[in-house]
Amino acid sequence: MKVRSALAWMVIAGALVSWALMPGSTVYAQETVRYSCSAQVYEAFEKERLDAFTRQSGIKIDLFIASSSSAVNRLMYGVSDVASTARGLYYPLVESGYVETPFCRDPLAIIVNAQCPVDNLSEDQLTRIFSGTIKNWKEVGGPDKELMVVIPAKNTAAYENFERQAMRRKDITYDYLSYQSTGVIELVKRLPLAISFVAQGAAANQEKVKMVKVDGLASTDKDYPFYQEFSFITKGKPSGSAKAFIDHAFSDTGKDIIKKKGMMPVSRPQ
N or C: which end of the chain has fewer CB within 10 A? Predict the structure, then answer.
């Protein structure tokens, strides 16, 4: 009887191991993905998704929030398994075997304090505001009060994308600078005369902040001129728990969050 009992337990143990290795099982339940996340990507997308991913997969997330450049640097130094970024991957990294997986397109919104009466600015007015030529809200249809220009740090994707798309590489003049790109949201909330820019998904549904139209186009309109693309970066083709983490962003859960924030899902590259 003892021999039969021992054999029975061996069969059960073997079955459990086989089940754990089957696709779709909780094989990742004890695993952790070390994730360095862009601040914009976190506020716009991951803040809502990460808990859902862990609940569905059992995979824990060791999260570090930083600028896009810092997130990628952490991946390069081997302290992360996955990074996310709001700007394209530099070509030398592509040549070195790093893989970029775009998953979302997000407008780069112009934000002001909710008390500001200005609802629309032209691209030319934006260039003149952020270059320091326009210094008073009265010049763009607002009150006779001095503008306060708030920007994210120059190493952030938001700054680089805005400088390239809106400023055409012209120098930006500013009054306040935030270390993290999403920090501009809090500054605009506290400064009634402030203006800044940030991922639309991060600014969506924020109290005391509103998004300004550009040449009559809302940030959610098809032809809105400024946008960013969110991507995951891995060293080599993603596999294991890192692949499961990335796959989840393309699931119905991930797509629903993206659409709810006024962003656009991107088809997964083949």
Answer: C
